[in-house]
Amino acid sequence: MTIRLPSDLVAAALAPPEKLADLARVAERYAVAMTPAIAALIDRGDPNDPIARQFVPDIAELTTTPEERADPIGDNAHSPVEGVVHRYPDRVLLKLVNVCAVYCRFCFRREMVGPGKQALTAQQLDAALGYIAAHPEIWEVILTGGDPLVLSARRLGEVIRRIAAIEHVKIIRLHTRLPVVSPEKITPALVRALKAPGATTYVALHANHPRELTAAVRAACARIVDAGIPMVSQSVLLRGVNDDAQTLEKLMRAFVECRIKPYYLHHADLAPGTSHFRTSIEEGQALMRTLRGRVSGLAQPTYVLDIPGGYGKVPVGPDYVDMCGEAGAMLEDINGLKHDYSPNS
Ligand code: SF4
Predict the structure, then answer these.
(1) pLDDT for 269 beyond 90
(2) pTM of the predicted model, to two decimals?
(3) 202 backbone dihedrals φ, ψ, rounded to 5°
């Protein structure tokens, strides 16, 4: 059973009894859920366990810093109808549900997700699909939330069929954590529901630590990929979870082994009560430099940051090129050595 109560976290030895009051205070503010698969992964003897850090509430979550904001990536500024975010011309987010199988302590939509938070009603879904149908520039629809894979295969399949039937939509991308946190729920029926004639489906898997990619998780991902659905990865750079080169290297290698192309490494957003997770951009760049020296291009994610206020996602380096006027450029190799590149001189 999924753990949702602080007392159950203590009973399962996932938090010490003296922390119960703190846990309860955090749980009043932010949703808590941990699936059995995640609880089984946690090393109870390690007070700094990187899996526990992602799912066990921490009193630090009640400290909101001045720069943090309820809508850190500015979804609301680009929402023409309920559930749709249209930030870039050729694609939209469609937020079908506001619930997840787990609640990550660093979630960038933590103010919007949680048990009892509204999913789209039938009328709102009609309006959202109507908006997409009326905008021929929309080529890609990204199902996010919450976690769209918590829907039943029947409901998800129906929505995907309706989106794929819109002539100009060619790509449907689902962002999910479910294969990691509840791999047993990636059933053949759910996998079949992900595809529909008329559009190509991609699945973006959110995982942050190599230990999350257990044998059961790898098998769940294989069910998706074997069905002809390409997968990409998304990870968040998190202090105390994956902010070291060795962990990131293992994580990216694990993705590639699972036929999941590393896609994004997100700089942690300015979500309320998450400053204890954030690194500096400089630290992130240094990690990316190390990664480039250690793993092939196949295992390289792009390090990105969502500009607060809704201005979109940008790669944040590191940069290996120093332009030197018309003459050429100075290029930096993986060891930090500079090389003059002047083809026209
Ligand atoms: S699964 Fe995604 S949306 Fe849900 S709590 Fe975690 S980060 Fe937030």
Answers:
(1) yes
(2) 0.96
(3) -120, 150
